[in-house]
Amino acid sequence: MADKAQIQEAIKTQGEVVRKLKAEKASKEQMNYLVSSIRSGISCLLQSKSLILFFLCTLVNNSASNYTAMIGLLTTFLLFFLLDANNPAVVIPSSPSVIYFLYLTRHHLESKHSDWIFLDNTAFGLDNPAVTWHSRTVVIGQHGLVDFAIGLYCCSDAALLNGHFGCFSFDFVLLSPAGMINLGMASLRLYAGLVGCRSGFCARSLRTLSGMTVSQIDEEVAKLLELKVQLGGDESRHQFTLKTAKGTRDYNPKQMAIREKVFNTIISCFKRHGAENIDTPVFELKETLTGKYGEDSKLIYDLKDQGGELLSLRYDLTVPFARYLAMNKVTNIKRYHIAKVYRRDNPAMTRGRYREFYQCDFDIAGQYDPMIPDAECLKIVHEILSELELGDFRIKVNDRRILDGMFAVCGVPDDKFRTICSTVDKLDKMSWEDVRSEMVKEKGLSEEAADQIGQYVSLQGGMDLAERLLQDAKMSQSKQACAGLTDMKQLFSYLQLFQVTDKVVFDLSLARGLDYYTGVIYEAILTQTGPVPVAAAQNGAGEKAEEGVSVGSVAGGGRYDGLVGMFDPKGRKVPCVGVSIGIERVFSIMEQKAEASAEKVRTTETQVMVASAQKNLLEERLRLTAELWNAGIKAEVMYKKNPKLLSQLQHCEDSGIPLVAILGEQELKDGVVKLRTVHSREEIDVSRAKLVEEIKRRTLDV
Question: Is residue 692 domain-shared with residue 570, that is, in the same domain?
């Protein structure tokens, strides 16, 4: 028997099509937009075994409508015979003005209507109040396991012929001459069923796109294609451009070798200062990150709701660290953390600015005497940048209390402190004129206040500047500013003991826009640029190479005494200070230097290559290689039975492997190995028992 819900749904769907075609009209311009937006998707769908049916109809009001209907009918039959029943039938009229998307799914066939009566092999249809059709269905009978049925549904100006034959069903609309003139409609509906199970696809919904905007049309097309992927019927190979996502990049072995060297230098410095290592999840609850970054909060990547939890990718490593301290009730720790963070920033690949990048953080949490931990953080920055030999650098320091006091005495309203601070933070990228214009025109600050700020942010110096500002007529009126200036003097006295004052400057223009800073802030910048050594657009088309690499800030940090208290139920604060190394920007400089110097970068640490000059010595080579591995020697062997000696030596040249242990029949008899130095090509015979010791002696620096 034909499925009751299937027959009922056919009537309902076709009735809605007819009714909506009468009621809806769309302009030719709208349809041109629609056709252009889905044209690329149609070409893929025609090649795929999809569970989606594009149902396209025309609405015309001219004398050519009969021909339009005939073209649509012929196209339908052509596709029916050319395409397999499991493939989508796509009919594109010559001048479409209305397109309906009718998508099919495997969901069980259910119907809320119950106005059908079945008697044995015959069913009589009653009037369906949901549509204007007057219908009657006759079920012809059953043959073996295959049901077959024919239904005829009639109205005043059209008739619907429905058939169900085993594995597929169809609907065909016959229009009277009046109907063709009014509707110009011819369609074929195909969907697969399952023999023996008597189940098939049913139309779940019908959407009209008439009168929709281009963006709404694009959204509907995206939803339809998403449904197609979810249904999993597409096995064809799609054409697409292989590239990394915007703001990300791949690292080849040479680049990874440079990265590993940088990481080792940084980690060694952190450990030298007694830091412990921790790790936190790559995503946090959204509420954990909300309200911690000021205007930069718009750069946070939010994730789709998963099981009721609103999540975001971490923006930095500082806020997760504060959450970790509060959650685990840790009151003092010196830690380091190296991990990836994510920001929806505008990437600049040649400047080392990405959307996915590593941060290397060092933080000291706990109650200590003022400025001692702060000075150690600056000492760490100085050590790392000096050891990496990136070039000349400068570490700028300031204090949030000094900034807030300066804003207050210059006449900035309290509620504008943070937003004006964010604008001042742009002075490293914009001229003072542009910053002043933003403060006045966009932030609503008075010109007089902006000019007074301009007088202060141009000041730079050291301990002498802090002493001079303590005597300043305006700054001395602010208790906040005086407290910050007093601590600044103390900081410089410790920096003198650490012997790093040659690179540190007190700069009142340094603001750092993050909301959680409460005291000393600092930022390290490189003061030189250079040529671009590597491809500027490793993530595909659209990235433009710049004239040079100017990475700017490579490290930053400060004191954030109130951040942990934001997460503690009782508001208990844990004083913290830390620094973050912008490692991706460091990589840009290191790659530049390696490229400019034509330095050969080793991508492996292999100490020796086990080779043979004669055939049939594979087992002996493998045996010696295993001995070296067991002794802690980094060794390689070629994966061929009889490799040529020249090929083995060339591999050592290309990979920078310093030694080759060569086996031959004579060496095996004598119990020795011929040890060759690749660079000098010198060879000596070494006894098998002393080979490990000799390799270690010759490769101490490898």
Answer: no
